[in-house]
Amino acid sequence: MPKAHLVLDPHATVGPVNRRLFGSFVEHLGRCVYDGIYEPGHPTADANGFREDVVDLVKELGVSTIRYPGGNFVSGYRWEDGVGPRSERPRRLDLAWHSTESNQVGLDEFAIWLDNVGSELMYAVNMGTRGVQDALDVLEYATIPSGTKLSDARIANGRKEPYKIDMWCLGNEMDGPWQLGHGTAEEYGRLASKTAKGMRQVDASLELVVCGSSGSAMPTFGEWERTVLQHTYDDVDFISCHAYYEEKDGDLDSFLASAVNMDHFIETVVAIADEVKEERGSDKTINISFDEWNVWYMLRHISNDKLRDPHDWPEAPRLLEDVYSVADGVVFGSLLISLIRHADRVTSASLAQLVNVIAPIMTEPNGPAWRQTTFFPFAETSRLAKGDALTLNLSSDTYETAEFGTVNLVDAVATHDAQEGESAVFLVNRSREESTVVTIDTSALTTHRVTGARTLSDPEVYAANTLANPDRVGLVANESATEADGVVTITLPPVSWTVLTLA
Ligand code: AHR
Predict the structure, then answer these.
(1) What's the mean per-residue pLDDT of the chain?
(2) Ligand 1 atom at shortest distance from the alpha carbon of 214
């Protein structure tokens, strides 16, 4: 049986695990908003039309910050279309997703929903077809208490108190040729700098996110970050990273090692940000907002001709409704491990997306809502990763992958909450055939006692939860964990994600 060994040392810390690592993303795309979080005729809908079954699942998922309203959508969005009397709101073409936007949900409704789920709003402004003035207008509408045209409009629309929105994204994926208003890094860097400066004249304490690359495979990756940061270093707090992974050509071995790519991506962006810091002699550090990450079977969606039919602009069509398998859930769990491993520099992240669209939560109109496989690693990690992320001393047997060369069979990260006297270890076994035995040296910890271990795995790695069979896959107790003389031993089944807790 393959083996791995880890040493946990509470003094070897990466940094505190920021709650914002467990953020998500709601875009006006497909059925994420309409028929997802909002379905007025649904039996569980509240007075505002929001599905309470979905609210309950979002709470169970444990989502901190939610990025809104896009995504590619935001680059053509007029935020003012989505406020005021609903009957007067215009229907508009959404060029990003070739859909019709009814504008029945906008900032004010979304803020009500956020209060229901108890999450923080992270708002993205339109830097595609708009820019400085649009950002200042929505900032005034949302955050100025009263006494100006736009703040008074908010009050007239029923929301007296200003919203507390700390994080603002300066556009979305402006490096992508598909993005409405896409330009060069120079052009975007200048616009982002001007917009940020203007927003800070309204409120200097805002936390601003500038667009990094929409993937590490982009031809401009690296140069984009450097140029954009040279223009905006003093104006912003975060640079974004986006990454999606999928199994290509049946190469499950490489897919299971996707976190290797995420690790490199993060470390490269950190190195570039720190280089720009050095060049400028700045004492400010720019951190990463990994504000889109997930498994996404993009190649399956890309040849959707309906998306280009000039006569067909459907409302809330079924788009990007990936069904996630156990293997997807395991890779997803390993991406969370990568984010936590870099907790010192990745201080905000958003799982893209939340409901129906590449989502952990699925819904059927007038029907049930259910959890996909990815729901489980997210909910457990959000609930149990507390205190500090630890620098693990990890040794593991390896395997060969076509994409990443030799890779550890086991990947892991641990967190330690000294105040609560609790630790958690998150592990994946990437072996397709074999269980792996992991020994964990906990002798340096005061937290030795195993309080639980739960695993996502299945003899059928492509098993999934669906409308017809919503509870086919879930977490199961891993009864193999034992502790003796400061060493915990646990067996991880093939293609599995596990959380082990100690107290
Ligand atoms: O999350 C789906 C899409 O992926 C977003 O709209 C865009 O930002 C990214 O390309």
Answers:
(1) 97
(2) 10
